[in-house]
């Protein structure tokens, strides 16, 4: 945009938007505190008088220096792509109380058994961290602890200890005396992160930064923070359940489709190499209104059970309540069952929930939700060895899902013997041994197949419209 001749220009450091007057919030990207004055540069940056580290041919560079080193926590290593890379900076973000500090203290203790670790806390005192470390069994000789909030002192601690791993909890509590403003504002976070990242790159040690999140779940501070670090790890989970999931949002050294599962207990945080059992109820009893499915969290298949309850409504507008599912998809599935399969649920309350507090966002779980609701309407149990996979369209057809072979292999390992899948789902792969795969074209055929595998006594059919 045009500016007044001779007047100052202000530019947003996040998106580059310019204006002729200073504003607290960028008019383009809506970032707070990112608009600064652009000074009129009278000179250009010249070449350095002497190069400190000359460029070398790529074949002469030692690639082993960028290899992964295990943290001693297999689930955390899975998310990172094999472990921590020397010189890398990992940003761990999550809601307050979700378990970030507990996980990183456990990682620090595991690494501290063979290497030197410096744990810097700006939120708690050293005594408080020591008490938590004793509770979770994270006290080791190689773990050094300091409670500091001044950036220069933090850098001095790093230079004195010479650690292999540095943990900063958290980056929003550290402040530099050279920058105006309190700890946590945009300028302070940018300066603190830049200084710590430079120290990690020059010192060749790995660094774990704890980051706070805002109300909408995004990382607090400037967006440039996520661009500067090498890995961004998101810590998710319901505070009312013990399950915690760690997934990589950005990873320069590995994949971003891996998920680590943890169980947060009073004695610490425990990695779950096989978390599928957490999302299943007692499977030796056939109960109406339940059906299992397999979701993909990254590349990891998880067997999840969906439960449904349908009862006559006492109010003019029936309730549609759900836990762990998308409300829009649930409403669509109910409408398809009502219109295409003749299920009389238009005037009945419908409650749908997942077991274990897991959240399902994949469309491939639509068929399992429809089977669970139909089972509740018919009051007929679904065999506990049956599961369903597939996306449901508005016309009632069942559409294919990705990774069906991988999902069925995990289900067969857990004892499932029958799977309802879309037509052509296993065109390029064979079903797992012992698994009876039944292809269905629409939701009506899926419900009929479910009823066919149910004992014939006391069977009630879906009434026609």
Automatic annotation (TrEMBL):
The organism of origin for this protein: Janibacter indicus
A single GO BP: recombinational repair
Key words, A-Z: ATP-binding, DNA damage, DNA repair, DNA-binding, Hydrolase, Metal-binding, Nucleotide-binding, Stress response, Zinc, Zinc-finger
InterPro entries: AAA+_ATPase, DNA_repair_RadA, P-loop_NTPase, RecA_ATP-bd, Ribosomal_Su5_D2-typ_SF, Ribsml_uS5_D2-typ_fold_subgr, Rubredoxin_2
One GO CC term, this protein: cytosol
Annotated stretches, region: Lon-protease-like: 349-465
Role played: Plays a role in repairing double-strand DNA breaks, probably involving stabilizing or processing branched DNA or blocked replication forks.
Protein name: DNA repair protein RadA
Molecular-function GO term, any one: zinc ion binding
SUPFAM superfamilies: P-loop containing nucleoside triphosphate hydrolases (SSF52540), Ribosomal protein S5 domain 2-like (SSF54211)
Domain topic, free-text comment: The middle region has homology to RecA with ATPase motifs including the RadA KNRFG motif, while the C-terminus is homologous to Lon protease.
Classification via CDD domains: RadA_SMS_N
Chain span(s) of sequence motif RadA KNRFG motif: 250-254
Annotated RecA family profile domain residues: 65-213
Residues binding ATP, per UniProt: 94-101
Family: Belongs to the RecA family. RadA subfamily.
UniProt keyword Protein biosynthesis, yes or no: no
